[in-house]
């Protein structure tokens, strides 16, 4: 088996910072869901809050996204790996964007194409999401003719929980030790250096809603 390497974006040798993240919840649409990202001991963060589905009639979402001004060149990687340190059994969504538009006059973000993967990880495991696993969506609807994700210019990473049309709600909690770019063959790579221990890696299970 080829060696595997990873470059940490958050966690491990890139300590988590609350200034790198901000909430983006359904309150911008009149909902009542909310989320927070708290830094725990041992350089772990907890994404937690409450997912409400009553205010918006079955819909609802809560998320933490990276702050404006951050960007990454991930073209040397095969995907992202999430180090999960604690899990409540709910379905979460990893989202990437390569294009951001100026905010509307009311402060709301303008919609652009998102690249998403729904996952329901095992407790305390590394979950790998390869680029080919991501699906392009616009305002929650999958699109078939989207241009490929610009991996040289990823401008936003989001961790989200949503109701999937009322199928999940209530308090939620997901502990994340790290987010890293990974590559399956490190021999020709100059940026991904840390070997991955295969014993603690599991495949993400898609949980489409």
Describe the structure.
The structure is a single chain. The protein has 209 residues and is mainly β. The protein contains no helices and 15 strands. It has strands at 5-10, 21-23, 34-40, 44-51, 61-66, 79-87, 92-97, 114-119, 125-130, 135-138, 141-142, 156-162, 170-183, 194-195, 201-203. A hairpin with a 2-residue loop joins strand 10 (135-138) and strand 11.
Give the helix/strand class. mainly beta
Task: Pick out the low-confidence regions.
Answer: 186-209
The best one-word shape is: globular
Number of strands: 15
What's the story with the biggest beta sheet? 8 strands, mixed
C-alpha end-to-end distance: 34 Å
What's the helix-strand series? EEEEEEEEEEEEEEE
Tell me the β content. 35-45%
**For the residues shown, what is the average pLDDT?**
86
Share of helical residues: under 10%
Q: Count helical runs.
A: 0
Q: In angstroms, what is the radius of gyration?
A: 17 Å
Summarize the structure.
The protein is mainly beta and 209 residues long. The protein contains no helices and 15 strands.
What is the topology?
Elements: E1 5-10, E2 21-23, E3 34-40, E4 44-51, E5 61-66, E6 79-87, E7 92-97, E8 114-119, E9 125-130, E10 135-138, E11 141-142, E12 156-162, E13 170-183, E14 194-195, E15 201-203
Parallel strand pairs: 9-15
Antiparallel strand pairs: 1-13, 1-14, 2-5, 3-4, 4-13, 5-12, 6-9, 6-13, 7-8, 7-12, 8-10, 10-11
InterPro entries: Galactose-bd-like_sf, NADH-UbQ_OxRdtase-assoc_prot30, NDUFAF1
GO molecular function: unfolded protein binding
Protein name: NADH:ubiquinone oxidoreductase intermediate-associated protein 30 domain-containing protein
């Amino acid at each position: 088996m080829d060696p595997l390497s990873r470059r940490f974006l958050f966690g491990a040798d890139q300590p988590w910072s609350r200034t790198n993240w901000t909430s983006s919840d359904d309150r911008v649409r009149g909902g009542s869901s909310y989320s927070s990202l708290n830094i725990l001991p041992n350089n772990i963060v907890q994404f937690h809050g409450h997912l409400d589905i009553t205010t918006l009639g079955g819909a609802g979402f809560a998320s933490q996204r990276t702050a404006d001004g951050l960007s990454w060149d991930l073209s040397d990687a095969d995907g992202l790996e999430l180090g999960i340190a604690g899990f409540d059994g709910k379905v979460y969504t990893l989202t990437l964007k390569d294009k951001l538009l100026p905010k509307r006059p009311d402060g709301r973000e303008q919609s652009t194409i998102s690249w998403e993967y729904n996952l329901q990880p095992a407790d305390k495991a590394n979950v790998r999401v390869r680029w080919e696993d991501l699906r392009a969506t616009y305002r929650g609807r999958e699109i078939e003719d989207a241009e490929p994700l610009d991996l040289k210019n990823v401008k936003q990473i989001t961790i989200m929980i949503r109701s999937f049309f009322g199928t999940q709600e209530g308090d939620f909690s997901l502990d994340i030790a790290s987010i890293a770019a990974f590559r399956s063959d490190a021999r020709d790579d100059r940026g991904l250096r840390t070997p991955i221990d295969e014993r603690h890696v599991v495949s993400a299970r898609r949980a489409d809603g």
